[in-house]
């Protein structure tokens, strides 16, 4: 059955089984929104859904039910300034204990579209070299400023004057959820400039997925049909996850 998960920033639809544990539903939400299971509280009509129970233990839940997601605030939140260029400085709120150099690069990629591999981050004159290290390991604290440098950015003589990067082929895997083809793993190869809508059509044309509503997840972010694989930061050997359902509104 399909249920609607309602948050402060929007709502989205996912498929759940009548025998599916509440904990597994929270794990799906973590994959979609990046919110840790421990920070989630699910409720319907004021009743909290307990991790040790299944959907069948809540007879009030049926097709189309609206389940409310409450997110417990995460500690260690800090605000940092990210200087992308001389006139452009943005402010971000991050978790100093969980935000890594890599995840910050991904946020910057979403903002300005620069390839993640070409981003170099500097703090207090030193490069943040190790992608898997947390920001606080480098001494980044509240109100710190991180400078962004693009390495080897090569512009083509584009009539629009925008920086363009040569396209390349990407090899990646598409993994379906348990309700779609029993968690199949599908290897694909496409141009990095291909849009998510094109990926969707390829899977339909090859009859690798049924003609249903579903959405793609890459690194805990919902992928947008009109944006390219490169825009989403997809790299060789990455996994894209498919979940049955629809995204009703944009989720912040």
TrEMBL record:
Residues 1-60, 99-155, 170-242 form the Ubiquitin-like domain. InterPro entries: Ubiquitin-like_dom, Ubiquitin-like_domsf. One of its GO terms (biological process) is proteasome-mediated ubiquitin-dependent protein catabolic process. One of its GO terms (cellular component) is cytosol. SMART domains: UBQ. Signal peptide: none annotated. GO terms for molecular function: polyubiquitin modification-dependent protein binding; proteasome binding; ubiquitin binding. Pfam families: ubiquitin. This is Ubiquitin-like domain-containing protein.
């Amino acid at each position: 059955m399909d249920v609607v998960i309602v948050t402060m920033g929007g709502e989205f639809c996912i498929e759940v089984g009548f025998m599916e544990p509440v904990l597994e539903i929270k794990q799906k939400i973590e994959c979609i929104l990046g919110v840790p299971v421990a920070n989630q509280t699910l409720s319907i009509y004021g009743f909290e859904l307990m991790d040790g129970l299944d959907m069948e233990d809540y007879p009030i839940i049926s097709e189309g039910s609206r389940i409310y997601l409450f997110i417990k605030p995460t500690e260690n939140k800090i605000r940092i300034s990210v200087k992308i260029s001389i006139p452009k400085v943005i402010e971000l709120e991050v978790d100093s204990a969980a935000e890594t150099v890599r995840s910050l690069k991904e946020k910057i990629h979403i903002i300005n579209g620069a390839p993640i591999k070409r981003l170099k981050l500097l703090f207090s004159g030193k490069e943040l070299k190790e992608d898997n290290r947390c920001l606080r390991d480098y001494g980044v604290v509240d109100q710190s400023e991180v400078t962004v440098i693009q390495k080897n950015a090569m512009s083509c003589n584009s009539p629009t004057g925008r920086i363009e990067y040569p396209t390349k082929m990407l090899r990646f895997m598409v993994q379906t959820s348990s309700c779609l083809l029993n968690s199949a793993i599908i290897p694909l190869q496409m141009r990095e400039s291909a849009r998510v809508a094109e990926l969707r059509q390829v899977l339909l044309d090859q009859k690798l997925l049924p003609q249903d509503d579903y959405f793609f997840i890459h690194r805990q972010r919902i992928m947008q049909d009109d944006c390219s694989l490169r825009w989403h930061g997809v790299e060789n050997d990455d996994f894209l996850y498919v979940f049955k359902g629809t995204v009703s509104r944009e989720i912040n």
